[in-house]
Amino acid sequence: xxxxxxxxxxxxxxxxxxxxxxxxxxxxxxxxxxxxxxxxxxxxxxxxxxxxxxxxxxxxxxxxxxxxxxxxxxxxxxxxxxxxxxxxxxxxxxxxxxxxxxxxxxxxxxxxxxxxxxxxxxxxxxxxxxxxxxxxxxxxxxxxxxxxxxxxxxxxxxxxxxxxxxxxxxxxxxxxxxxxxxxxxxxxxxxxxxxxxxxxxxxxxxxxxxxxxxxxxxxxxxxxxxxxxxxxxxxxxxxxxxxxxxxxxxxxxxxxxxxxxxxxxxxxxxxxxxxxxxxxxxxxxxxxxxxxxxxxxxxxxxxxxxxxxxxxxxxxxxxxxxxxxxxxxxxxxxxxxxxxxxxxxxxxxxxxxxxxxxxxxxxxxxxxxxxxxxxxxxxxxxxxxxxxxxxxxxxxxxxxxxxxxxxxxxxxxxxxxxxxxxxxxxxxxxxxxxxxxxxxxxxxxxxxxxxxxxxxxxxxxxxxxxxxxxxxxxxxxxxxxxxxxxxxxxxxxxxxxxxxxxxxxxxxxxxxxxxxxxxxxxxxxxxxxxxxxxxxxxxxxxxxxxx
Length: 547
Description:
The protein is an alpha/beta fold. The chain is 40% helix and 18% strand. It folds into 3 domains: 52-250 and 292-296, Rossmann fold; 309-321 and 361-545, P-loop containing nucleotide triphosphate hydrolases (Rossmann fold), CATH 3.40.50; 325-358, no CATH class. Strands 6-7-5-8-11-4-14 form a 7-stranded parallel sheet, with helices on both faces. The protein has a 6-stranded parallel sheet with strand order 15-20-19-16-18-17, with helices on both faces. The protein has a 3-stranded antiparallel sheet with strand order 1-3-2, with no helix packed on it. The longest helix has 20 residues, at 493-512.
């Protein structure tokens, strides 16, 4: 295993001094991270993988239940072979690949007598606790709330906390000195500070600040010796999103964010400051990532799954609703726009997105009613809370007409424990049944693979979300051949969002190296590819996520 992340030398090849992570000391010598050795043409003084026999011994560990050797798939063993060999590893695997099991085996294998920590989304804490009880002898302990408590140094427990509340627990975690940390959905840390828009019942927009978990994560990453990051979408929108993840898994080896942005993100000064919205030196970046990255392709997972299908429904103006209720909201947003300011512009566009979503309700209602009559299980992802509530109220009338039909709805304002209960009831229901939710609440770290039809009624802003959303339905354990249907209203804000996604998806594909896909016609389920932005979007999505 690599035990030293750096080597010290008297010189480096000319032109390599600016590679992020290479540091010139005061005495003229250089500190070079191991992940830069391949770029410099130096051999890596490290073991790249442990043997399969060693992985088998970990799968039969005393803290695991039963014999997992026959249960773990080859792609999961592949992740473990690399992860056990290095102090920090970054597992890139598609949604539904069984990353939770990999994380549990890793934690018990590298630190059987040490403190074990999992950091995940709040919505996924229950799933990790369930899987912990299923596969291990460890007792799951949830670190919840905004008031921390002392963490007992007990190696028989698995401590599980959330990104959303990490800043409240950072001091207690550091004091406990975990021996291993599993960073689930690590891409969530792409920004140090950000906000989210909340649509109020009256149509106005409130911007809610999200806690800065990045500083807390970096402090923990600096003291935990063994680390495994897990994600299906390492580049949510731009290449720049990688830096925070890499800096946690391999502290101080990737330079500053500015250095990373200049070298790998096409960083340029725009007259006001630097922006890092492009991509540069991709071959060098891929070479450095090979030391930390564990890439599992969709093909490796799909051989265990039923085939996933896609379609794009582009509603013409004549097929759209004309929501009179939105006229008032649009007028209010336009009035606010005249006052100027970034928040006013965002509020206006949020209202345009809501208006576009409202135009699809009749089509969605008819489509769902047909599916429920065929005893199918249906999930609808809306984009915002208020749209989720309005759509659910309308769809309940249709669901009530179907004998034995179950229906649930929930968004980010629903308590996580209530969402867990809803998920269990939905998954256990034989059908027909319907789940209505927002993509933000249900689009990550949730198992919804027992679904026949998944309707995406509002496109997300970033590629990671669209890939993650699809991943809720195509997962290990899936038995239904799910159809993912994207509904796009022509001449509305939908098409603008589609174009923004199309601008970002190529960068994701090049660095992630996940462009292997089926033929376009097969992936798009017979959609006319000449129609426009929506179809071009699905073409890119297919390249990243198709079987």
